């Protein structure tokens, strides 16, 4: 059996609920060995509390957590879920400087690491500025950009949140010479769970599955733009952008991959431009249904998953 791939997760969890789904998916992927989680953007102490509680529910308090750089003030859409939960309650290790923890984890690793980034890029840019040599012992997989299609499957690209929030940080990463792979909105922007898959998760007795539904319901009640998404929160998830980056950390089979020269503009657009640096991009799905089946199976506990798909 192939050894699991060592990974670090950098996440802006606490704003959009898809980070919760991505972390839960990652925790259920035996192909990946999660060495560190670093919180990104906004109130990173609040975000770290979210991570700590979810990881503890999953029985994975062996995973260290790093508090990242607090920057923009973003609405804490999941605050009720960590009411009364303080970081001192987390039995695992918490690093007060998440950027240093990220650098140290990569530098000390005897094998190359994969950095999975599912948020804006100030943490990653700061790490590259402090220790540019980290690219020699790691690769980058991110949920970033929009190339040919935009949000909600639009037939034109948009400025994607993770890039446009801090374009200079994104440019630092995209011009670093790192081995870069991304899922832009072209592929991650059309992923969601609905129908029987979502119903099974809503009915799950697994603590991780229950936590996801609790946070899904909280998020849907708290976000101002929920009506614009055209979803029924009782029967389907929001868009699960970040889960695709987790998948790309261990497989690419279900996606069409292209090596494209990508440049980041001052306004935060990711454009295909001959002056850009080569990035491996997931531009289309080969089998989106197979991915959502995989995602649902991993998020259900093992017994429920086997009952749903008997051999």
Summarize the structure.
The protein has about 300 residues and is α/β, with parallel strands linked by helices. It is built from 13 helices and 10 strands. It has a single domain (about 5-300), classed as Inosine-uridine Nucleoside N-ribohydrolase, Chain A.
Describe the structure.
The chain is globular, with a radius of gyration of 18 Å. α12 crosses α13 (about 300-310). It has helices at about 20-25, 45-55, 100-110, 120-130, 160-165, 165-175, 185-190, 195-200, 205-220, 225-230, 245-250, 290-300, 300-310; strands at about 5-10, 30-40, 65, 95, 115-120, 140, 180, 255-265, 270, 275-285. The protein has a single domain, classed as Ribonucleoside hydrolase-like (Inosine-uridine Nucleoside N-ribohydrolase, Chain A, Alpha-Beta Complex). About 35% of the residues lie in helices and about 20% in strands. A ten-stranded mixed sheet has the order 4-3-2-1-5-6-7-10-8-9, sandwiched between helices. α1 links the parallel β1 and β2 (about 30-40). It is built from 13 helices and ten strands. The protein is an alpha/beta fold.
For the record, the CATH class is Alpha Beta
Using the CA coordinates, give the radius of gyration: 18 Å
Taken in chain order, the helices and strands follow as: EHEHEEHEHEHHEHHHHHEEEHH
- As a percent range, the share of strand residues is 15-25%
CATH topology: Inosine-uridine Nucleoside N-ribohydrolase, Chain A
Overall geometry comes to: globular
Number of strands: 10
